[in-house]
Design brief:
Layout lengths: L6 H19 L5 H7 L2 H9 L11 H35 L7 H10 L15 H18 L4 H18 L8 H20 L5 H17 L15 H19 L6 H8 L1 H31 L1
Helix pairs in contact: 1-2, 1-3, 1-11, 1-12, 3-8, 3-10, 4-5, 4-6, 4-12, 6-8, 7-8, 9-10
């Protein structure tokens, strides 16, 4: 496949990242934020999975090297150059009383174990190793277990759901999240060749189904960073219906250069924006508390 970018995919990524940034800026208790959070990460995984199964003729080493270079090298570079300095600044100036060592905090972020280690601040770097693991797993299934691919995929997803319902503890590099994320990658790979075959009436039905499931789930969000899906039998299908509907609608947007440009840089925006949003929120909270103290004096 050529390296030429596909405009509608960049548009879809642009829409997705705009929704994510908006969802992180507004109050997490608002209905709009919960609406965005109910599907935005499954949407990202679906868009990442559009072509994941297109190169199963490559060798495992070649595919592994390619994905490691595109996902894990940026993960370590950003972690060293961005995450560690921000981590130090945040905990040194904003919450200096945190009972966790600096080294432990950094290791928590790098391994994805922050929720178990009591982290109070995180960024979106978890997405890169999670996508890397999910990509390698589903690619390997289609490469080496093609005859049993659906059985193995269903078994893997069932294990991920069972782990969420019973244990739900963080595993290194988001392995537990990746076991469910493979479902979204798989659906994304199906959409590559079938999105044009979907009728507008079916999309309307998807929207109705999403609305019903979301309301039934008490307008809940999906927080994959914390492996939190709410009522998973409602949230997973709801997120799939909403994501497919958005991809279908964005498919018909033509020649929107700004949206395409945003989409081209969506991964970088997704990773970096949370650093600044979290930091600005923390500073605002600190200034608000300080202002209250000064007024009392």
């Amino acid at each position: 496949m050529s390296g030429k970018r596909i405009e509608w995919i960049d548009n879809a990524k642009g829409v997705a990242i705009v929704l994510v940034v908006l969802g992180h800026i507004i109050s997490t208790d608002s209905l709009l934020s919960r609406f965005i959070d109910s599907f935005h990460m499954p949407l990202f995984f679906m868009l990442s999975g559009l072509f994941v199964l297109k190169k199963t003729n490559d060798s495992f080493r070649s595919h592994l090297n390619n994905r490691f270079r595109r996902l894990m090298i940026p993960y370590f570079i950003l972690g060293i150059c961005v995450l560690i300095p921000f981590n130090w600044l945040y905990f040194h100036f904003i919450i200096p009383s945190a009972q966790i060592s600096f080294l432990q905090r950094c290791l928590a972020h790098f391994t994805g174990l922050h929720s178990d280690w009591g982290e109070e601040w995180r960024c979106c770097l978890w997405f890169l190793p999670c996508l890397f693991v999910a990509d390698i797993v589903i690619w390997s299934i289609w490469k080496y277990l093609y005859k049993w691919r659906y059985v193995v995929l269903l078994l893997l997803i069932s294990i991920g759901i069972f782990y969420y319902i019973t244990i739900n503890r963080s595993l290194p590099f988001r392995i537990h999240t990746a076991s469910i994320a493979v479902l979204f990658l798989f659906i994304g790979s199906i959409l590559t060749e079938n999105i044009e075959k979907i009728s507008v009436w079916l999309i309307g039905l998807f929207c109705i189904c999403y609305t019903f499931l979301w309301i039934s789930n008490d307008f809940s969000s999906i927080v994959m960073a914390d492996n939190n899906y709410g009522l998973i039998h409602l949230s997973i299908p709801a997120s799939i219906f909403a994501s497919i509907a958005i991809i279908y609608l964005v498919r018909h947007i033509r020649h929107n250069h700004i949206l395409s440009l945003i989409g081209e840089q969506s991964l970088a925006i997704y990773i970096l924006h949370q650093l600044f949003v979290s930091f600005i929120r923390a500073i605002s909270l600190k200034l608000s508390v300080l202002g209250g103290v000064l007024q009392k004096r």
